[in-house]
Specification:
single chain, 6 helices, about 65% helix, mainly alpha
Length: about 100
Amino acid sequence: MTRFGLLLFEIAKWQPLSHYHESMRRRNIIVSQENFSQKLLETEQQNLEFRMGIHYKSVVLSCLEGCGVEGGDPNDKRMRLAYFEKVVKVLNQCRA
């Protein structure tokens, strides 16, 4: 789910993730592959709602922060239901 959130983040900001890796490196922000999503949210999420709207921002945050279900098994019924509620249904509310 994190990968989908990163893809949506790239679309919203109209910048590849490599741009953010480089920006963090220049600012001496230490980032590992495991905590990149968290650092990205901490440092780069400004204007996300302005650019794409509240629903889209909510989906990006849900994907990058998790849908509120522990674990990561995509076959887990609770995980699929949380994904449907917090991602699919909310994306359906987006309007261009």
